[in-house]
Specification:
This protein has 15 helices and 16 strands. The protein is an alpha/beta fold. It is globular.
Length: 456
């Protein structure tokens, strides 16, 4: 194989705020592992690597301090806001490696034959565009393939404006292999391509010099079709892995990289729990890992049993967040009755009986949903606070292709081809008047003050 060098790029975040809750480009690393298995030489530049060795050149007082369990703030540079966001009275930043370090890294890597760029939130695309611009400046003739969340959900926008030569959507392993092989003149044996998640090689975490934590996916996709969520658009088929295979992967990272923080990002972790996650918990207990485990994505309160809660406590789960969204019964019915108020009450009781302190549990509440009154959010905040647990407010972002998107286009004067920057949840996209913005700020302050009371 002659033309066999592939460069992976995880671009910056451009936004009003960003925080590293164990963010790693797992999809990009999975694509890299498949290509590597087929003989390609893989290199990575991750602009969001907070432990990149080049950051040691920056005075320590200029870098954010690391938080427990491997999370923390990114290095931030204030940059001009895009014109369309000019009326937002907040600083806009580039989060991640300083641009000079990125340019230096480009000079160090082997000149690539193909470049793969991933993308995160749809409204982070300016960071993607800038990375592609710099890549094209360095290697004008090298083809750039763009994938990831933004590319999948806003494909037309990406093809028109990103500067990438190719844009792919959805799970990228097979698509990337075919396209890279076509561009490099290779003919892979596709009959050997993995048919199940359990057959995939592990994501290429070995490309990092330092890892504070490793995200683990025990499944791909989600069987639910929440009106606000795009999970089924990004991964149309829901598939769960064999718990023993997951355990073997964790043991590999534990032994080879001394990883002591494992993060589960599954969208539906407790589906088929008796055969899936519960079995994994028992394996973790049997293996007696001296490690911490985290559930930042929110698990379903109604599926938490006393056995699951007990094992979560015994095996060392430090971050436990619960999906709730709203205490309003009508809203819960519209979301498919995945959770009720009684479910949450019972889940908190079960988890605290198992050993968790209530203030160490977080409950997600959504605000800014279509046709959602401020009073609904306030009532949800107070309901959660009365249970003694932390409130974690999340602002709604309208996502193209979801059921809620149709409501947004019809009732909130959103053109179907709206600039994704205007879907940024930081600006409360459906309620952009100054009065509404201040109302959301008051809700945020209410949640913050109630959480502080729990700490006192």
């Amino acid at each position: 194989m002659i033309n066999n060098h592939v460069l992976l790029i995880n671009p910056w975040i451009y936004d009003f705020a960003a925080f590293d809750f164990w963010l790693k480009p797992v999809g990009l690393l999975s694509v890299g592992s498949i290509l590597n298995q087929y003989g390609y030489h893989i290199e990575l530049i991750d602009c969001l690597d907070r432990f990149h060795p080049a950051l040691k050149k920056i005075p320590p007082e200029s870098l954010p301090k690391n938080k427990p369990y491997g999370v923390g703030k990114f290095f931030r540079e204030i940059i001009p806001k895009p014109e369309i966001l000019g009326k937002i009275h907040r600083y806009y930043g580039r989060y991640g490696l300083p641009e000079p370090i990125f340019k230096d890294e480009l000079k160090k890597v082997t000149p690539p034959d193909v470049i793969l760029v991933t993308s995160g939130m749809t409204y982070w695309y300016p960071g993607v565009f800038h990375a592609i611009h710099l890549l094209k400046s360095a290697w004008p003739t090298v083809p750039v393939i763009l994938g990831g969340i933004y590319a999948s959900l806003c494909g037309s926008h990406a093809r028109k404006y990103s500067g990438a030569d190719y844009v792919v959507s959805g799970p990228g392993e097979m698509a990337a292999l075919k396209l890279v092989s076509e561009l490099t003149g290779n003919s892979p044996d596709l009959s050997q391509f993995p048919q199940r998640l359990d057959d995939f090689p592990y994501p290429m975490y070995e490309l990092y010099e330092h890892l504070a934590a490793v995200p683990i996916l025990t499944s791909r996709g989600c069987p639910y079709r929440c009106s606000f969520c795009a999970s089924h658009l990004l991964a149309p088929v829901f598939e769960q892995r064999n718990p023993l295979k997951v355990m073997n992967e964790m043991r590999y990272y534990y032994d080879k990289f001394q990883i002591r923080n494992f993060v589960f990002w599954d969208d539906a972790l407790l589906i088929n729990a008796e055969k899936h996650f519960l079995q994994l918990l028992k394996l973790i207990q049997t293996n007696q890992f001296d490690a911490n485990f985290h559930l930042p994505n929110g698990i379903q309160p109604g599926k938490i049993t006393r056995e699951i809660a007990s094992l979560l406590w015994q095996t060392g789960f430090k971050t436990v967040r619960l999906s709730f969204e709203s205490s309003n019964p009508q809203r819960q019915r519209e979301m498919g009755n995945k959770v009720t108020n009684d479910d949450l009450i019972q889940a908190v009781e079960i988890l605290t009986d198992a050993g968790f302190a209530a203030p160490d549990l977080d409950v997600y509440i959504l605000m800014g949903l279509p046709f959602q009154a401020f009073l609904e959010v306030e009532e949800s905040i107070n309901f959660v606070h009365q249970l003694g647990v932390k409130i974690r407010l999340s602002s709604y972002s309208p996502i193209p292709g979801t059921r809620d998107w149709e409501k947004v286009v019809q009732h909130y004067q959103f053109p179907p081809d709206v600039d994704p920057l205007l879907t940024n949840n930081s600006i409360h996209p459906l309620h952009r008047t100054e009065r509404e913005y201040q109302s959301y700020e008051r809700l945020s302050q209410l949640a913050k003050s109630l959480n502080q009371k729990l700490n006192n």
